[in-house]
Design a protein that fits this description.
Blueprint (H helix, E strand, L loop, with lengths): L1 H11 L1 H7 L3 H13 L5 E5 L7 H7 L3 E6 L2 H10 L3 E4 L11 E7 L7 H14 E11 L11 E3 L4 E9 L2 E7 L2 H10 L2 E3 L4 E5 L9 E10 L31 E2 L1 H10 L5 E4 L14 E3 L15 E5 L8 H10 L7 E7 L4 H10 L7 H14 L4 E7 L2 E3 L5 H16 L6 H15 L6 E3 L2 E7 L7
Parallel strand pairs: 1-2, 1-4, 2-3, 4-5, 13-14, 13-15, 15-16
Antiparallel strand pairs: 5-11, 6-7, 7-8, 9-11, 10-11, 12-18, 16-20, 17-20, 18-19
Amino acid sequence: MTAQAESLFNSLGAHYEAAFGMDRELQSFIRLVAKTIPPRSRTLDVGCGTGKPVSEILASAGHEVHGIDISEEMVKITKSQVPGEFQVGDMKTYQPSTLFDAVFAIRSLFQMSACDMCSMVMRFSQWIKVGGYVVLGVTPSTSLAPKNTTYDPTWDCTWMLDKLWMGNHVDDLFLSEERWCQLLRESGFIVEIEPVSYLFSPASQEHAPEAHYIVLAKKVEPEPLLGPYPLPRCLKPLEFQDREDFFADRLVSKDLEKLVEDIGDSPDILCIGKDLLNGHFQRRKSRFVDHPIEDLPFAPRTFQTVLALWQMDYVLNMERTIQEITRVVGGPSPKIVIVQGGPYNEVVKLLTSVARSLPVGHQGHILHSTRRYLTKYGFGNITVHRIDASYEFQEASLPERCAAAADFLTGIWHRQHPQREKIKEALVERLKLLFRADAHSVSHGMVAIVARPSLDQGN
């Protein structure tokens, strides 16, 4: 979808500003936000377009304005008429050098997958200081004519496929007002003021009036990667299930490759669990142990690094587990790396929606507990990292891709499920929507906690 969006907005250029630049309700809302945030705030306009009205209003109010847009033509226009720093960039891969006081995403969250859209709000939270703000301007799904839409039950969202917009055919994704507010809460925000909802008529004869919805939210949770929020108070113990092909050759992840490369490959490294790093993640020298984590059969300080990949889901006593892991780590640079699922993991979302049973517990709860006990047992120097990953299905035809993906995904946690064939059938129907337009990836995002001894104590 990125290439399509880039081509689309390069072709529109100034025509987009002519159609959408005179949105009085939006201008009033941005002026209100410009007065709400601290003076000379560092702000980011995501999908800045031609810079009007958002970046222009913020710059006029004395704020430090940065902007990104997928369209080189749009960025060129913005630079010519708004003071600030603007660059060509894809919001899904953008990495800011420092945190912002406020992030604005106005009419820029349409042409992406449901998983990417949900993850995008969480990324915004990562880019914002605690106490900072996000402003979203969207068209809610509740305003759409039912006959023109396709509902996606996995993500509770609505598609308009092959929609004619400004002379182009696009696939646009929409959430309801309630779902947008829920998504903000899940990503660590609270809605600050009553959202604004109104009809806007673009200055173009071929454009019908649109429903616009603008919401201002404040960041209150310091680590969005450990969501979605609010966390459950406790987790129901899960019965252990063997996992097959979890890190098979279909998995593609530069982030995971980098993590494994940084850890290295030596007898001083303990990998807990079966050799899940098979294929192109295979290790030869590191020690693998498939043994209850609560009682590791090693002397204290035997290993310099311990790696646990998706091993914390079935732990019955988290404190005892972390105590054991910290006990066997030592040496000059001890390190513990624990990898679990991230918020809005598409694999988990798909399987949960059709199997109706959780294959894993709430990953944020697991990681919060892990971090708390790591700190208690002397490993409080902790960093949290996003691990982008996906399973790739390159089969030529759509039916082949859907069948291969359904078989593979159900094999991760549901291979022994008595209704596996029915689960596969239901999964195929959802994959047809996901894999349309030659798509072939299922996102499998993860989170890595990297823990070292607390700075005020040795190990």
